[in-house]
Design a protein that fits this description.
There is one protein chain. The chain is mainly β and 184 residues long. The chain has one domain. The chain contains two helices and twelve strands; from the N terminus they run E-E-E-E-E-E-E-E-H-H-E-E-E-E. The strands form three sheets. The chain has a six-stranded mixed sheet with strand order 1-2-6-5-4-3, with no helix packed on it. Strands 7-8-9-10 form a four-stranded antiparallel sheet, with no helix packed on it. A hairpin with a 3-residue loop joins strand 3 and strand 4. The longest helix is centred in the middle third of the chain and has 6 residues. About 5% of the residues have low confidence.
Length: 184
């Protein structure tokens, strides 16, 4: 992404005005295209094509009095080798407190060159490039305190390519994880 390009993010909410608030995501010079955007109450999580996770926190500019998203640095420990990211799917951003990040562990990165017998040939061809195609580790972060609250590490033979969080009630959530063999 060139430094002259940017993303406008529209805030949806129950504010008193009928005008929608647009925010600019700035400081995105290091992004290599965007694969996925996830939002929470205070942050926008952008997964780029190089499998790096960029986190932007909203601020109000003093001169123009507009909302802008600036790069946050609290995510450096889980920013690389990210396969997928997700948050609570409900409409209200205030309920999106936890961020689920699917990454590759060190064990899987060391075994990445070894073929997986369950994988299809099309998926295996991506493993030779230096980008992770599947992950075996899920970290759950509290976006308000910027701390890891839960960690799940699976056997490196279990390779996950995507995850989806659903919510039946406010207290009950279900995390669906898709394997590279197409099983949930």
């Amino acid at each position: 992404m060139h430094h002259t390009k940017g993303i406008k993010y529209q805030l949806l909410g129950s504010s008193g005005s009928k005008r929608r608030t647009q925010c600019a995501i700035i400081d995105n010079k290091s992004c290599y295209g965007y694969k996925k955007l996830c939002t929470s109450r205070d942050h926008v999580f952008a997964l780029d094509m190089a499998c790096c996770l960029h986190v932007y926190r909203w601020e109000r500019e003093a001169i123009t009095n507009e909302f802008v998203y600036r790069r946050a640095d609290w995510h450096t420990e889980f920013a690389h080798n990210v396969v997928d990211v997700t948050t609570d799917p409900r409409y209200d951003n205030n309920l999106r407190r936890y961020v689920y990040v699917l990454t590759q562990s060190e064990r899987m990165r060391s075994r990445r060159s070894q073929p997986n017998t369950r994988s299809t040939p099309g998926i295996q061809s991506g493993c030779n490039e230096n980008l992770p195609m599947a992950g075996d580790k899920i970290d759950v972060f509290d976006e308000r305190t910027c701390r890891r609250v839960f960690n799940m590490t699976f056997d490196p033979e279990m390779r996950f390519v995507s995850m989806k969080l659903t919510s039946v009630t406010s207290q009950q959530k279900t995390l669906y994880i898709l394997t590279d063999a197409g099983k949930v």
